[in-house]
Amino acid sequence: MAQTFFRLAYHGVFSTKNRAAVLTEHILPELVKVVGGIIRDRDGALLAMNGTANHIHLLAMFHPKRAVSDMFRDVKSVSTDWVHAKFPTHASFAWQSGYGVFSVSESAIQRVTNYIEGQTQHHQTISFEDELLALLERHGIKYDLKYVFD
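Structure tokens predicted for Transposase IS200-like domain-containing protein (150 residues):
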């Protein structure tokens, strides 16, 4: 093939350290812009992002020259530095060490976008912990509960 063709979409989810409720209505909208810039600077595109006070979901396209693990490492590291600089009262802010990431087919992008946009309503009936376990099970990921949350 003379060219390389790709369209790689990922649904990522991760929480604040110990699921601390620090992503306020002042932080989250700006955080979306920051994360979008981080991904864009690495040749990707943020399609959707939302969350609650203790976790975020994002839907993004990543360039294949970037490892998924590197993208999540950079998103978490750079956004942590931004929170510390922009919100000095959150000097202890941190993300959990891990993350969940799931590939998304083209036919499911709108459904996942709707799911991400509906996080506020969704979490009126389900906790982040239960949501994450359901995502892992839905995607056939085996896990040991004692290592899922930090």
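The mean pLDDT is 95.
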